[in-house]
Write a structure and sequence with these properties.
Elements lengths: L6 H14 L12 H10 L5 H14 L3 H5 L3 H7 L6 H19 L7 H4 L7 H11 L9 H9 L8 H11 L5 H14 L18 H14 L1
Helix pairs in contact: 2-8, 9-11
The structure holds iron/sulfur cluster.
Length: 222
């Protein structure tokens, strides 16, 4: 059963998490909005750590849309081969660079509808770029935020877009981008998919999933 929280309780959770991860920021390494966009495309089904080990080589040869648009695909594949799905991703990032060059003069657009029209760019990728590179307010519902939103009772949905709509209703606009980053930090460090560290978690007293676990434990013992 997934419990839905009141706005006050949700705000209390986020206040604690923001204090805990006050230093949180996007963990991808990049030097421009273009490099962030490419790094986020590469990060699908892959850790940021692995992407950060790979992108310096890629950006050394192809630092911008103009150069990547003309890159031989075999060379790009070779440069990113340590990343999962590198064949598809190599094609996507070259196609993306070509569209940027042809339609946007090589500049990453700052509108959601333009970003999601680019090859390899979905709503999550677009929202990371809008929030991090352009400092716009955006929720990034990745696999961590998807899981945490339900565990913490912020949403009862599984679909990322529906979760985003629930989060939009629950929190103030100015907090969306930082809250996304903080929740992703918490998901990576403590509220992991398998064996979350609930007993050490700073928000366990507010967390409906932890309450539920305790009730189940008591029921088993009695
Ligand atoms: S108490 Fe457990 S399930 Fe709840 S947020 Fe913390 S780690 Fe996640």
């Amino acid at each position: 059963m997934i419990v839905k929280l009141s706005k006050n309780r949700a705000a209390a959770i986020m206040q604690i998490l923001c204090q805990t991860y006050h230093y949180a920021q996007c963990e991808l390494i990049y030097n421009s909005s273009f490099q962030l966009l490419i790094a986020v495309i590469l990060s699908a089904q892959c850790t940021d750590k692995q992407v950060n080990l790979t992108t310096p080589k890629l950006f050394k040869f192809y630092p911008d849309a103009e150069s990547l648009a003309k890159a031989p695909i075999d060379h790009v594949k070779e440069l990113i081969k340590s990343i999962g799905f590198f064949n598809v991703k190599a094609q996507n990032i070259i196609n993306c660079a070509q569209v940027l060059r042809e339609k946007y003069q090589g500049i990453v657009p700052n509108k959601l509808e333009d970003l999601i029209s680019l090859p390899g760019v979905g709503r999550k990728t677009a929202n990371v770029v809008l929030g991090v590179a352009f400092k716009q307010r955006a929720w990034t519902v990745d696999t961590h935020l998807n899981r945490l939103a339900r565990r913490l009772g912020f949403s009862q949905n599984n679909d990322p877009y529906k979760i985003e709509l629930d989060l939009i209703k629950l929190f103030k606009t100015q907090d969306w981008t930082f809250y996304s980053i903080v929740l992703i930090f918490h998901g990576r460090r403590m509220c992991k998919a398998q064996n979350p560290s609930c007993s050490a978690c700073p928000v366990n007293k507010f967390c409906p999933s932890f309450d539920q676990q305790k009730r189940q434990f008591k029921a088993i013992k009695s």
